[in-house]
Design a protein that fits this description.
four-stranded antiparallel sheet, nine-stranded antiparallel sheet, 305 residues, 44% strand, 3 helices, 21 strands, elongated, mainly beta
Amino acid sequence: MGYAQTNLEELYFAPGGANFPANGTDAFGMGEADEGSVAIEPFSPISVENRDFTTLMDHKYSKKTYQWKKEFVAALLTCFKANDATVMAITSGLSFDETEGTCADGGIFKHENAKSMGVEFEWNLTPKDRSNLITFQRAYPVADSLAIITAATDVTLPPACKVPALDAANTLKAYIVPSFGAGITIAEDQLDDWFFKIKTRTNKTAFNKSRGKRIDVEINAVMDGADPADAVALMTPTYVPDIVVTIGVATPWTITFKSGGLFRSGKLNIDKDKRICTAMLKGSYSMEYYSVDESGNITFGTQIN
């Protein structure tokens, strides 16, 4: 028996309900990412006299990536809207055989066709963070779960799938001065802090598979040295106009949040060191109304145009 490393070396996905792409060219890996995690454990066991009878096993793979290629994000949204993703989780690089594309010790857990998984994600854009936390999850009958684990040592990684899937041109590292749209104007030297949080909202099936419903969005912009006019402008409750966020990779692309989706409130805090005014925007967008144009720019809309 071999010794398997503990790492989730790489996590690949592609639109679900079909075979994993044979050559891997239409699959996307996390690349520049944290170590991630794999959890395979009983789901909703039947308890009788302190005994847990397992009928389903839950598979959960999570990894936080810092790569923002537009095709990657578009594919992720496609999976979320379709409630399906084909997935390969490569769990060890210790004895990876590049000539055969197999990982005999740790194994490659493969989910495709009828065993495709649900997906959730959370994007965080802040002065200190540019992360995309992605989770694939689903529970399977015990026999199916054990079959996935047993087959892991023989699964072949497609030739275009590298471990790790590094893509330096699409890794966000540099500081970016964000745009908050018309109505929120803060000079760069008064921008004290900011964040964009974009998170999926889902329901779960009886097999613990996520079904995408909406995209929840929260945006904060913090202004230091705000005078009364600034405070009124940032704190007046209202729906906000379009907000366009530029993702500053090698070939920049944008995410647009259309007007009518986000509502603004605000607060003012004054102490001996700072005079802080925070504009707080929150709202959600239906997955029925998002679109991706030919350049890969994403728009979250509030109605059918």
